[in-house]
Amino acid sequence: MSRGIFVTGTGTDMGKTYITGLILKKLREAGMSAAYFKAAVSGNERGADGALIPGDPLHVKTVSGIDQPLEEMCPYVYENAVSPHLAARIEGSPVEPDVIKSRFADLCSRYDFVTMEGSGGIICPICWDGQKILLEDIIKALGLDCIIVADAGLGTINSVVLTCEYMKSRGIAVKGIIFNNWQGGVMEEDNRSMCQQLTGVPVIACVERGAADLDISADELTKLYGGV
Question: Which fold has domain 3-227?
Fold first, then answer.
């Protein structure tokens, strides 16, 4: 049985892709069979041949060094830098849940650990024409627990607690919080303490800007993954 986890954030540009790349790097360096998956990615550039280049998957592949082919990583790639539901409305090719389930199941059949990255924050419309699909619907359909990525600085207590409480109200388990852009100091140490006390969820890593590694062991990291 493969094991999986979903990486979401307290909002856009919290560093989900950066952190996910470090997670995959940690697993690869520990000799584990690991894959990346993202349902939909927006805001991509075109290559010389005119084809869209999936930027987030490419970053994760480059940083982590995993051998997984890029074309396996994300079935829906959009050019417009907007929410996936709007990008699909503009460009066509709306997200189909059965495609997501099939592609994810295929990865689970071939890799021991599958890390799935979300789009934006937890309340992200993935499709809103015909079918009404939020990111949480995909998480629940795939049976995944979550890690939350949050900025370590001012305002994070509010955003972390609101995100955690929303996810808990939807029956989604949160296994850990990772602080990005960590600088330390009195305020950020207090942010870490308060987020843990108010949510009951542990802060499992604090990542400095530009860090090339996670301050968590591969063994502890794999304990967060559930069977899928």
Answer: Rossmann fold (3.40.50)
